[in-house]
Amino acid sequence: MEKQTFAVGERVEKFCEKCQEERGHVVASVSKRGQISRVECPKCGTRSTFKSRAGAVGENASAKVGAPYDRTQTYRKGQTMTHPTYGVGEVTAVIEPQKIDVLFNDRVRRLIHARVQA
Ligand SMILES: [Zn+2]
Fold first, then answer.
1. Which residues make up the environment of ion ligand 1, defined by Cβ < 5 Å?
2. What is the model's pLDDT at position 1?
3. In angstroms, rounded to a whole number, what is the distance separating the alpha carbons of residues 54 and 65?
4. For residue 63, what pLDDT is reported?
5. Ligand 1 mean position to 117 CA, how many Å?
6. What is the C-alpha to C-alpha distance for residues 110 and 99, in angstroms, rounded to an integer?
7. Cβ–Cβ < 8 Å for 105, 58
8. How much is the pLDDT for 59?
9. pTM
10. How many Å lie between the centroid of ligand 1 and the Cα of residue 62?
11. What angle do CA 66, 62, 86 make, to 5 degrees?
């Protein structure tokens, strides 16, 4: 059996009871052995336990394609984008006026947005 470890902020696919759909969740906490203990749905914010299953990571069942990432654009929570390096992502939170958290296929990354061009 392949041993897989995880880190907080990584992405896993899970069925959200509240949203009633299989979607990307963010790992909220892991055990000392690197196993997921809790995940959070970026859409509704529900935290739930996670039972790891083989091949669950990286499977993007509903591949939504967003417009190319543009740092001058202003994003809102829930918007999708296609990043040239990381692929398709979904905005999970607006951290600061010019910073957003985006959930990509593997993990959450912080990007800038609403950048006024010099
Ligand atoms: Zn949800």
1. 16, 18-19, 41, 43-44
2. 58
3. 25
4. 52
5. 35
6. 7
7. yes
8. 46
9. 0.72
10. 15
11. 50
In Å, how far are 22, 24, 25, 57, 111 from 54, measured between CA atoms? 16, 16, 16, 8, 30
Q: CA–CA separation, 9 vs 78, rounded Å?
A: 17
What does 43-54 look like in DSSP terms, one character per residue?
TT--EEE----T
C-alpha 21 to ligand 1 mean position (Å): 8
Q: Name the DSSP class of 73.
A: S
Give me 66's structure tokens: 């967003």
Which residue is associated with the tokens 């000392």?
32
Q: Tell me which residues of the chain have a pLDDT lower than 70.
A: 1-2, 52-64
Residue 95: Cβ-neighbour burial (10 angstroms; 0-12, 13-18, 19+): exposed
